[in-house]
């Protein structure tokens, strides 16, 4: 079996990579360029609002370099989780960028666009049919959760990507996608071992993070063979060691031996990581354990109102000594002063006390000479959120606490205006598994000949 | 002998494992200490529950991973990433209680 080489330029399309590293990879004649673009890490806002968390100019720069090389080498380019969250609106921006680059550079290829977004009626049917399952500590999904979500996507596995390749696509832009699938699908389609392909994809999707020094925005190459694979970073100053590569398996995962994904889990209990050279690591022994009925992970978000915040500080030891009481009373005073006929939530984040860890903070004492306070107001409309923030802020500014001697004002505001309208905010509303005997059928594919009909 | 975790570890970190879980990684400097810690069961569900002041059932798993000399603990996030009142969307600054964790060996 010929070695299958995969070039992974960067951790997320739009995070950038050194062109020099990339060209070093191109010189090794890769069989595939693949890149992931997604994560739920930046929180619910981006899926909920449909706004990508990557910048269009930065995405275009990365995409142009990858497209040029894929066309020149006549190899596939697969992009997973377009626009970060992988809903149709994110996908559309990425596809627009691809068309724009092709037009500007005179490139032509068959493009596949694979949607990962779900119609709500279809999902409600799936829920009623008992095909949606609770996942870990996330709440059980209800019909209401589905109906109120702005976008619901599923992480596609390898199947839709393999079908797009069967249909002759060279460039494949996927909606929400299991990170390793973009790297593994082309190899599995050619008969390479599923477990090794997925495990290699799992390492490559974060680019050179598994190297030392690690980087999520520098290139790495994967070399897949019949019974093992190797990884090696493309920048000469980085190297992969058995420890750096095996340690990467821990990252953002709850268990380093068992990695669940669409259709089953990778079992890495018997994996062996050995040094092939002082900068290349060889991996073998990965296993894939399929599920009886394949599953894909659903992710959905809904709007949770609008937010207005105010950032301020305090440097008074008498105030700091009673800050808990003051803020507790302030909630009551704000309610009295506002007489709101709408629901709202008011929260104070106190930096210097437990602003970072909240309920998990083991140290309850303030040892700092100053504290930072973020007044966080959320209500059904922006106007209402701003009203809550405004009343809380002015009440706190002049609040007369016991023993107060600084009678001109309790807060230092770094900015004017003091209150910041954050706009609509979102929360995760659907996080669950969807079971399907035919996972490829869940993800609609469309094709387009890019650049061939332009004069 | 008394040890402080930061003195024997190369990496102590926290990160989201999805929006509903938080995972804590401790990567030790040498194999000998890793084996000692594992044999003495120094970091277990109760240790993590005590350090983070959460019920032991909210500690979902503790895994010792010799390949990377790593101990991994996964806990339920008190609030999902991005929820009202939540403090750390990426979950990347929840490691501190482990840094100065002291134990006898």
Task: Give the SSE layout.
The complex is a heterodimer of chains A (455) and B (105).
Chain A (H helix, E strand, L loop, with lengths): L3 E5 L10 H8 L5 E5 L8 H5 L6 H18 L3 E4 L7 H18 L3 E6 L5 H9 L3 E3 L8 H6 E6 L4 H8 L4 E4 L6 H9 L4 H11 L15 E5 L4 E5 L8 H7 L9 E4 L2 E4 L4 E4 L5 E4 L2 E4 L4 E20 L2 H5 L1 H16 L5 E8 L19 E9 L2 H16 L21 E17 L9 E6 L5
Parallel strand pairs in A: 1-2, 2-3, 3-7, 4-7
Antiparallel strand pairs in A: 1-8, 4-19, 5-18, 6-15, 8-9, 9-13, 10-11, 11-14, 12-13, 15-17, 15-18, 16-17
Helix pairs in contact in A: 3-4, 7-8, 8-9, 12-13
Chain B lengths: L1 E3 H4 E8 L4 E8 L2 H10 L4 H8 L6 E7 L4 E7 L19 H4 L2 E3 L1
Antiparallel strand pairs in B: 1-6, 2-3, 3-5, 4-5
Structure characterization notes:
The complex is a heterodimer of chains A (455) and B (105). Chain A has two domains: 4-116 and 155-294 and 436-450, no CATH class; 302-428, Alpha-Beta Plaits (2-Layer Sandwich). The model of chain A has no long low-confidence stretch (mean pLDDT 96). The longest helix of chain A is centred in the first third of the chain and has 18 residues, at 56-73. Chain A has helices at residues 19-26, 45-49, 56-73, 88-105, 120-128, 143-148, 159-166, 181-189, 194-204, 242-248, 317-321, 323-338, 382-397; strands at 4-8, 32-36, 77-80, 109-114, 132-134, 149-154, 171-174, 220-224, 229-233, 258-261, 264-267, 272-275, 281-284, 287-290, 295-314, 344-351, 371-379, 419-435, 445-450. In chain A, α7 (159-166) packs across α8 (181-189), α8 runs antiparallel to α9 (194-204) and α12 (323-338) packs across α13 (382-397). Helix content of chain A is 30%, strand content 27%. In chain A, the strands form three sheets. In chain A, strands 12-13-9-8-1-2-3-7-4-19 form a ten-stranded mixed beta sheet, with helices on both faces. Chain A is elongated. Chain A has 455 residues and is of the alpha+beta class. Chain A has 13 helices and 19 strands. Chain B is of the alpha+beta class and 105 residues long. Chain B has one domain: 2-Layer Sandwich (Alpha-Beta Plaits), CATH 3.30.70. Helices cover 25% and strands 34% of the residues of chain B. Chain B has helices spanning 5-8, 31-40, 45-52, 96-99; strands at residues 2-4, 9-16, 21-28, 59-65, 70-76, 102-104. In chain B, the strands form two sheets. Chain B has a four-stranded antiparallel beta sheet with strand order 2-3-5-4. Chain B has a two-stranded antiparallel sheet with strand order 1-6. Chain B is elongated. In chain B, 42% of the residues are buried. Classes of the chains: A alpha+beta (455), B alpha+beta (105). The A-B interface holds A 40-45, 136-138, 242-243, 246-247, 249-257, 271, 273, 304, 345, 347, 349, 354-360, 362, 376, 378, 425-428, 431 and B 11, 15-21, 23, 25, 27, 51-54, 60-61, 63, 65, 67-70, 72, 74, 76-90, 93-94, 96-97.
């Amino acid at each position: 079996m010929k070695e299958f080489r995969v070039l992974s330029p960067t951790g997320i399309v739009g995070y950038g990579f050194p062109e020099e590293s990339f060209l070093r990879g191109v010189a090794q004649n890769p069989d595939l360029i693949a890149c992931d673009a997604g994560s739920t890490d930046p929180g619910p806002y981006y899926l909920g609002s449909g706004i990508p968390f990557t910048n269009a100019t930065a995405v275009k720069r990365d995409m142009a370099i990858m497209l040029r090389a894929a066309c020149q080498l006549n190899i596939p380019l697969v992009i997973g989780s377009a626009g970060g969250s992988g809903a149709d609106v994110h996908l559309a921006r990425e596809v627009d960028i691809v068309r724009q680059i092709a037009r500007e550079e005179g490139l032509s290829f068959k493009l596949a666009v694979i949607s990962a977004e779900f119609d709500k009626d279809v999902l409600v049917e799936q829920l009623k049919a008992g095909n949606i399952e609770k996942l870990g500590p996330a709440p059980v999904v209800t019909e209401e959760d589905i109906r109120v979500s702005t976008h619901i996507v599923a992480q596609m596995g390898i199947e839709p990507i393999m079908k797009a390749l069967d249909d002759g696509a060279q460039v494949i832009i996927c909606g929400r996608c299991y990170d390793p699938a973009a790297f593994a699908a082309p190899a599995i389609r050619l008969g390479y071992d599923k477990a090794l392909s997925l495990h290699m994809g799992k390492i490559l999707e974060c680019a050179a993070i598994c190297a030392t020094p690690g980087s999520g925005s520098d290139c790495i190459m994967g070399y897949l063979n019949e019974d093992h694979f190797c990884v090696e970073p493309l920048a000469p100053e980085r190297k992969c060691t058995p420890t750096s590569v095996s340690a990467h398996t821990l990252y953002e995962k709850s268990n380093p031996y068992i990695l669940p994904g669409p259709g089953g889990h990778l079992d890495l209990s018997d994996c062996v990581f050995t040094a092939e050279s002082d900068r290349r690591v060889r991996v073998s022994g990965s296993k894939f354990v399929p599920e009886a009925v394949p599953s894909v992970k659903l992710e959905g978000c809904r709007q949770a109102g609008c937010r207005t915040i105010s950032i301020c500080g305090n440097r008074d030891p008498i105030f700091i000594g009673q800050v808990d009481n003051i803020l507790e009373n302030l909630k009551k005073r704000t309610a009295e002063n506002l007489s709101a006929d709408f629901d709202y939530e008011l929260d104070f984040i106190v930096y210097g006390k437990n602003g970072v860890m909240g309920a998990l903070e083991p140290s309850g004492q303030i040892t700092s000479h100053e504290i930072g306070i973020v007044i966080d107001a959320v209500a059904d409309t922006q106007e209402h959120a701003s009203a809550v923030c405004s009343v809380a802020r002015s009440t706190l500014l002049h609040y007369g606490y016991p023993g107060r001697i600084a009678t001109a004002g309790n807060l230092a505001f770094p900015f004017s205006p003091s209150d910041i309208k954050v706009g609509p905010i979102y929360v995760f509303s659907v996080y669950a598994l969807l079971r399907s005997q035919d996972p490829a059928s869940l993800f609609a594919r469309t094709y387009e000949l890019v650049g061939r009909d332009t004069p | 002998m008394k040890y402080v975790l930061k003195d024997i570890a190369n990496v102590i970190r926290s990160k989201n494992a999805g929006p509903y879980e938080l995972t804590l990684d401790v990567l030790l400097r040498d194999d000998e200490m890793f084996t000692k810690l594992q044999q003495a069961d120094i970091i277990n569900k109760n240790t993590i529950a005590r350090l983070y002041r959460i019920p032991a059932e909210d500690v979902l798993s503790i895994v010792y991973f010799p390949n990377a000399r790593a101990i991994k603990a996964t806990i339920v996030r008190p609030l999902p990433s991005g929820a009202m009142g939540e403090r750390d969307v990426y979950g990347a600054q929840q490691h501190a209680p482990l840094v100065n964790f002291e134990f006898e060996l």
